[in-house]
Description:
Shape: globular
Strand content: 15-25%
Radius of gyration: 20 Å
Number of strands: 8
Order of helices and strands: EHEEHEHEHEHEHEHHH
Amino acid sequence: MLIFGETGIVTKFDLYTTAQDRVWFELNQYAAAQMPQLLAALVEYEGAAEQDGKAGLVFSPTSNLSTVGLLYAASTVRPNIFRRFHSIPTYRTLVPATNVTLAELSPAFSSPVEVPTKFDIVAASTKVNLELYRQIYNAFIQTSNKLSKDTGGNAVMLCSLQPVTSMAVIKGRQMGGNAFGLSAEPQMWFTSVAQWSDGAHDEVAHAAVSSLGQKVTDLACARNLSLPFLNPNDATFSQNPLPSFGPDGLARLKAASVRYDRLRVFQSLQNGGFLLSRILEE
């Protein structure tokens, strides 16, 4: 995601690189009955990850099977930080525990399944809390089942609970910062995706993901666990993620726009998207 990319043409990137030979990785699927244990394992992991910047996790539930990818940025045997997940019986192992290069790992994230022609996506963010996660998962299941019924099985929904550590936020600030305005605390970025192929279901699919995103926010607000940030990568077209960056973030975006795009070419000629000009004109 290139937030400042809507202010001009990028001609040069300076990248910080890290020497990384091999990483440890494992990809498993779990039956729906294991969800209470999986959510507890996720919260335990989020606490431990505050002290271990090498750990990463993909947590993607559906109404039937949940996929969990475990990654550790070092060659090792079985990282202790994932011990709670390893105590839960798996339904199927997609990628056995292995030490691989990042190039060797990438095929694990490519799907041979034909992708439906349409999709919609929604964003929310919350603080870490097990009971909230349970409520969010139940809301996802209810919404997913209803969408499947309303579309005669043509639409399916996926969701992802994405842990973000305070360490990641602080490191980002140390490396120059960004416009996101993230709070330096453990947090979870929620997203859900609806996929379908029949254009007759466009409105009902968007309504499903949009209502789920709002439901997640409402559940978090009820527990005083909501966070304002909306990831633009995950936001649906009816959401407005740029104001969630806060006044300082918007000021950085505006400063970049004034410096590199004084004629507002990139604001006026783009057909759509989350444009800064629309926020400033409100």
